């Protein structure tokens, strides 16, 4: 199995030097059995099967039918670590009557549905008669012999997120970050944004109002999904009214929860985009959207409504209860065992397949569990996460802390975790513009980030550039040259090597940017690989974009690109449509040459017509 995993994790019991580190009793194991067999063994008096079955039944709370013979229970155990358990509905193709319960030899299993994941644990310092149920949250994967994901010590997750225990933990994270993380420090009180909401320090909701005029104080910024629900906004006609008082009852649940959080953290000011920017004033909207970099960077913390799809979802979700299986062992000594629904950390890239993680952010694991984290879908929220120094994610199962140094979580799994690929990018963003920046690395990280950004959802396509403008403004440097609707003029040769990686919907697109920039196709892109000896056969003579309004990194009305290079005449013959990379074919001197068709409709309109092909690079 993974003989050295325990040594790396530092969780197991020590052994004599002559025993080495590849002992069977220090390895992690993965087993599976039929759930009805486990239940039957528990009824016959097997204490281990009783604990396992009791945990599954009580954690599931009747939410799944556990009576079917087609259910399997799987588990991974390691001495001193949390026992991880899952229940799946299984389809079997063949069966051997001679197999044992925990070692079925001739059964072909295909999991069709994962029904439940839970974990059995004890708290640090508590006794437990089962050495396979411990307090270490380190996650092992013996099936693939992978290095373990190092975790902290198990903690209870309070049922009520309003509880004193939850906010004591948050304050401890803040204190530790302030005292121990130099790159996260905000010196003194920040300049308040142009508008900010005063929430007071107590429960007197009559004092909630919109403040204009600046000042210095610590404030919280809210990152949230607008969604389809209609919630309160600031318009020209309501501006004066909100400056007097914003009634509590007109605030959606997400805003109410954010105010509760601010008060519990001792912060009297909060910035919420829909209330602090005049939504029907185009000039105000352009100016304030350009300031979002400093607004999120300078916030005391960013409160992220990570699990809420709209304003009605909220931040403070009631959690599933922890099951207490404590008792008295055969020697009359008390023991403590607890079981709970496992909190998934996949979205933060903890305890995932290591092949799904790359040093570049665009290949970070982004698929599993996104439905539970709608904030991760949204384009506007992407730059908010990148720019915030300290973020508190309120998920449906626990609270997650993310600063510029590490990630932590309530359950104890992520403990000073620094393996999230986006963390390095966030650190890079925070340091952008400082002396000694390598221009090539500067451009490479930008390409990685915008490739990931291009996968996000955005309600209004015209916002593709504004929703990235704060990050672009932070990225601009003396060596980048002008910003060209998602690209940088001084790196334009490399920047033009983008490609579509998502399906063309074949619907007419409204103009967002000139056709040579990746933002023009309004869907997911990636970059063509550049070899070490790439030779460019073109020269860029000039390029530029005309900005629409006040935001220098926002919407554009026109753009141009002048190139000089060798061209050849051909005839566009056909378009071969595939899901992610449709190809078009050009006939050149009796030879058929293929190229990637970014816009199928446009290419189809040119079939049979004369076109010119530019030799770009080799």
UniProtKB/TrEMBL annotation:
Query: What is the protein named?
Result: HET-domain-containing protein
Which species expresses this protein natively?
A: Cenococcum geophilum 1.58
């Amino acid at each position: 199995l993974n003989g050295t995993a325990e040594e790396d994790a530092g969780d197991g019991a020590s052994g004599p030097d002559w025993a080495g580190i590849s002992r069977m009793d220090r390895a992690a194991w993965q087993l599976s059995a039929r759930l009805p067999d486990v239940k039957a063994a528990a009824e016959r008096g097997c204490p281990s099967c009783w604990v396992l079955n009791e945990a599954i039944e009580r954690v599931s709370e009747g939410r799944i039918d556990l009576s079917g013979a087609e259910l399997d229970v799987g588990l991974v155990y390691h001495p001193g670590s949390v026992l991880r358990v899952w229940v799946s509905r299984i389809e079997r193709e063949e069966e051997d009557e001679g197999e044992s319960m925990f070692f079925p030899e001739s059964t072909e299993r295909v999991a069709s549905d994962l029904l439940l994941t839970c974990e059995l644990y004890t708290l640090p310092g508590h006794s437990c008669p089962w050495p396979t149920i411990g307090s270490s949250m380190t996650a092992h994967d013996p099936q693939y012999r992978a290095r373990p994901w190092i975790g902290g010590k198990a903690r209870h997750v309070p049922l009520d997120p309003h509880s004193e225990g939850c906010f004591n933990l948050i304050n401890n994270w803040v204190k530790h970050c302030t005292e121990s993380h130099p790159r996260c420090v905000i010196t003194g009180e920040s300049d308040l944004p142009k508008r900010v909401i005063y929430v007071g320090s107590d429960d007197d909701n009559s004092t909630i109002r919109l403040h204009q005029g600046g000042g210095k104080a610590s404030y919280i910024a809210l990152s949230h999904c607008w969604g389809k629900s209609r919630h309160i906004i600031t318009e020209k006609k309501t501006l004066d009214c909100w400056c007097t008082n914003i009634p509590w009852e007109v605030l959606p649940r997400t805003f109410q929860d954010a105010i509760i959080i601010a008060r519990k953290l001792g912060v009297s000011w909060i910035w919420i985009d829909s209330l602090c920017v005049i939504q029907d004033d185009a000039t105000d909207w352009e100016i304030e959207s350009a300031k979002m970099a400093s607004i999120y960077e300078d916030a005391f913390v960013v409160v992220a409504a990570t699990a809420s799809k709209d304003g009605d979802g909220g931040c403070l979700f009631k959690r599933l209860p922890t099951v207490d299986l404590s008792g008295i062992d055969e020697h009359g000594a008390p023991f403590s065992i607890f079981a709970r629904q496992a909190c998934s950390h996949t979205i933060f890239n903890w305890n995932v397949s290591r092949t799904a993680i790359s040093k570049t952010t665009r290949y970070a694991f982004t698929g599993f569990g996104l439905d539970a984290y709608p904030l991760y879908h949204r384009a506007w929220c992407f730059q908010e996460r990148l720019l915030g120094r300290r973020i508190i994610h309120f998920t449906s199962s626990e609270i997650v802390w993310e600063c510029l140094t590490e990630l932590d979580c309530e359950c104890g799994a992520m403990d000073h975790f620094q393996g999230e690929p986006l963390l390095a990018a966030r650190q890079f963003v925070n340091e952008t513009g400082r002396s000694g920046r390598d221009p090539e690395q500067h451009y490479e990280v930008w390409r990685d980030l915008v490739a990931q950004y291009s996968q996000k959802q955005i309600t209004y396509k015209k916002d593709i550039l504004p929703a990235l403008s704060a990050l672009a403004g932070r990225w601009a440097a003396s060596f980048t040259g002008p910003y060209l609707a998602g690209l940088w003029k001084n790196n334009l040769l490399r920047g033009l090597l983008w490609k579509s990686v998502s399906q063309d919907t074949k619907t007419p697109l409204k103009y967002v940017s000139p056709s040579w920039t990746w933002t023009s196709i309004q869907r997911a892109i990636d970059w063509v690989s550049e070899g070490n000896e790439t030779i460019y056969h073109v020269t860029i003579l000039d390029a530029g974009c005309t900005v629409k309004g006040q935001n220098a990194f926002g919407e554009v009305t026109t753009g141009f690109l002048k190139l000089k290079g060798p061209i050849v005449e051909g005839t566009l013959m056909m378009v071969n449509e595939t899901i992610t990379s449709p190809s078009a074919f050009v006939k050149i001197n009796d030879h058929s040459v293929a190229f990637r068709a970014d816009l199928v409709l446009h290419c189809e309109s040119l079939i049979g017509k004369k076109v010119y092909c530019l030799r770009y690079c080799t």
